[in-house]
Amino acid sequence: MLLRTATRPAARTTDALRPAVRWGLGHALPRTVIASAGRRGDLHGQLIVHTSTSTDAPVELFDAIRAQGPLHRARYAYVTATLPVVREVLANPDVRAGVDLGTGAGPLGRLGRWAHRTTPMGPLTPPSLLVTEPPDHTRMRKLVTRVFSVKAVQRLRERTEEIADDLLTSLEQQAGAGRPVDLVEAYCALLPVTVIAEVLGVPDSERHTVLEFGTAAAPSLDLGLSWRRFRTVERALSSFEAWLVDHIEAKRRDPGDDLLSQMVAARDDDGVALTDRELIATAGLVLAAGFETTVNLLSNGIALLQEHPDQRTLLAAEPDRWSNAVEEVLRHDPPVLLTGRTVVRDTEIAGTRVPRGAVVTTLLAGANRDPDVFADPHRFDVARENAADHVSFSAGRHFCLGAALARMEGQVGLQRITERFPDLRLAPGATRRDTRILRGYERLPAVLG
């Protein structure tokens, strides 16, 4: 008993050190060395520095990287902003999702693996679908894909329209006589979180909690977080995981007809169910990704349409173009800036030999402006014939599971607010989110007119 008591403080001290090591290896060290390379002219380093200090899309850097060739060899990574090469990377079986920082070979790798033993579950933590590869990825994805099929999403459309109309009525009441309202808080966030909460059977009383969790955890995708931000994110992820455990158990005790109840009961062809960790990871990803990126799609779309009144006029005259307009919003200002990959076997990309262990950064937003694919790529044009050729939902085996849902919510949300308030105008005070990978608005004040 005395021995057990004596070891407890040491164990607590060890556990307390792990987050500091995770932060050092995963954020402080790479931020320092990559930024240093950027100051010496490295384009990848300049990209990381830009996204760390500015919320503007680094369009000039996209063009500069593309000008270096289809696959640019930077100091610490290969980088591409060429659309066919982005697709090639994302479909390559020798390239897996995610970037391991501090978990490779050697002393730093051993230290990293030790530190990651207490990592809270998050979107980049296995067995999340974002970083899991076949065969587990195939098995897990198959169990949830049918719920996000085009047919399933179309059945949700009428309910999404009802939610949008209710929110817009509430918005009108809040606005009163010309007072500005924050469209992100009162509309762009509430529409997708209400839809995904209903899909996953989250009670009304807990939806605000889910919204807070998603917002707090969004920076977990970023590189180079400050220590304070890193700790805030990890605490949010830990709280979200605990909430998910309780929510899943509630569905086991009292299943409904929602997606989560179906996921708990689902079995593959061999009768195998998702493990508890897989359920937590998948439910968390669906819940967070199911509204976080759609918040960005809606806010980016509203801002773009306000900046281009000629495009609003065209949509008013030809409402059949709304579906394509959503694709153009996704292309021009995508909710996700880039994604990272790691080469697991020596391979060839765009005619270049790329060695095992190399990191490849695919610039989704840059590929969406590839001039060899999109004519006049920096122009926002809702009538663009090939707008849907973007890679904003990624590509290959990790193509976004909720793409059909996001597209439907984007069309309903943008069309409903534009037609309901044709004289809407943005007020001063719009601010972008300070997240680096996810791109959208933190605040979007507007007068409804």
UniProtKB/TrEMBL annotation:
InterPro entries: Cyt_P450, Cyt_P450_B, Cyt_P450_CS, Cyt_P450_sf. The keyword DNA repair does not apply. CDD domains: CYP164-like. Pfam families: p450. Keywords: Heme, Iron, Metal-binding, Monooxygenase, Oxidoreductase. SUPFAM superfamilies: Cytochrome P450. It comes from the Bacteria. Belongs to the cytochrome P450 family. This is Cytochrome P450.
